[in-house]
Specification:
By secondary structure, the chain is an alpha+beta fold. The protein has two domains: 174 residues, Alpha-Beta Plaits; 31 residues, no CATH class. It has three helices and nine strands.
């Protein structure tokens, strides 16, 4: 059994990074399904349910801007971090924040707003006390109150997402009437397999991107 929700999200900036561009961040023109799922899961998720994105409505014109910022160029190896944790000291970690900075350029989105249409299915991990109505009520209650397990973001942590529930039966906000081919877009990561990237051909039609369901032939690895 599936249960659907509609969530309006917005923010000052967004960056839904293209995985093929590593050195410089370049955003997709609209949210990826995996980014949209991350926003919803920040509000409510349990192993008993699996969220599926059905459509993304673009409410404002797509606008880009370029920013330049300083980023740390490398990370501390996990083994060294664990050793420092056991010893209770930072000695030997080789922290060189000032010396290891890199200046990078990012192309991001400016002044964004979307409506995410999604549903969830019960998974094999659902227990006897799990049912679709229960989890739907929890999500709606938390979304109405602005509650979340962690702050949802618009692609990257630097850009927090604000959100509100669109009540069942309420009209959807008007999408920005734009249609074009968005090219191949990241659908999700194959977490249950070899963690390869999965893509689909995204089409913006009158401001709406329809997302193919899991297992669809439109999804390619």
């Amino acid at each position: 059994m599936t249960q659907g929700i509609r969530l309006r999200v917005w923010g000052d900036h967004a960056c839904f990074t293209r995985p093929e561009l590593k050195s410089e961040r370049m955003t997709y023109d609209v949210p990826t399904p995996s980014a949209a799922r991350g926003i919803i899961e920040a509000i409510h998720w349990k192993p008993a349910i699996a969220w599926v994105i059905d459509a993304i409505h673009v409410l404002k014109p797509i606008r880009h801007m370029t920013v330049r910022c300083n980023e740390v160029g490398s990370k501390i190896p996990v083994a060294k971090a664990r050793t420092a944790l056991r010893r209770g000291t930072l000695e030997g970690l080789g922290l060189k924040v000032d010396e290891d900075r890199q200046q990078r350029t990012s192309t991001i989105l400016l002044d964004v707003a979307y409506v995410i249409e999604a549903h969830f299915d019960l998974t094999p991990r659902a227990g006897a006390d799990d049912n679709a109505g229960k989890h739907l009520d929890i999500f709606q209650r938390r979304a109405r109150r602005g509650q979340c397990f962690h702050q949802p973001c618009l692609g990257v942590r630097e850009f927090p997402a604000r959100f509100e529930l669109i009540e069942p039966g309420a009209p959807l906000p008007s999408a920005h009437p734009e249609s074009r081919d968005l090219g191949f877009m990241l659908w999700d990561i194959h977490h249950a397999g070899d963690r390869s990237s999965m893509f689909f051909r995204a089409q913006l039609e009158n401001g709406v991107v329809r997302v193919p369901p899991p297992g669809s032939r439109e999804i390619r690895q």
